[in-house]
Amino acid sequence: MTMRSLVLIVGLSLSTLAQAGRAPIGWVRIPAHPIEKGGVGKVYKGNDVVHKPFAVKFNDDAAVSAHEADVLKKLNGYDGWPRYHGRYGNIFQKNRGLITDWAHGETLEKIGVQHQPTAVQIVRQLLTHLGELHRRGYVHRDIKPRNIFFDAQRGAESTTLIDFGLTERIGTTVHGEGTPAFCAPEQWRAGKATPSSDLYGAAGVLAFLLTGRLPFQETERLVEQGVNRSDLERIHEQRDVLRSVTDPSLRAVLHKGLSPNPADRYESAKAFRDALAPFAG
Known about the structure:
Radius of gyration: 20 Å
CATH class of the largest domain: Mainly Alpha
Low-confidence stretches: 1-25
Number of helices: 9
Number of strands: 12
Number of domains: 2
Shape: globular
Mean pLDDT: 83
């Protein structure tokens, strides 16, 4: 076999892998600077040999990164979240990057307020994804606008759920973790991971898309001050942000979704999704 033939075969193999959605890991390249730098890590936009984009995420906590990789491997095969492709770096590195599909569009945090029909359509699609996640036996545990991508040109079907670092099996004993402003009150107590907390987060996301405000604005500040859990739960019971939702019927749906008592919320992602159907335009 000539060198030219070998190059052609290798090139065709890499192209075939990329087109099939499987990244040839050794050929993904990332730029010198991340596109996002947060409190717990960095995200780069990488490309393979045929310029297919990938997200390459480095978490400062190697254990969390390994956990997310393990979860995503088990969840591969659904379009509502990025497909996992492997780790970036060599096996001798303590903390390797996480390679997934690139999520197109912008986060809901950046997009901000939407007209009611669009906001409801986005959250109904999110609830479809959560229903599939729960069906597979997992709870996301960090539903918030920053973890949801949306491409306005493609519509609500483009809604993509990301960041599975806190995801656990339903029924797993967990401790106070999550993003305070979107975190269900029961998540501040040690207990079992349940789908209901994800539905609470989805209701909080809808409140944000309708009003431009965090569901519980004071929560972030109080967490920084080290406030106790009973005060956090009291704030979550007030739900003042819903006063600016003008449609009383939709406000009632949100009140149920944001109930501090899990037993008073919707029984499933599908039930919540169905309740929002009349408001989707």
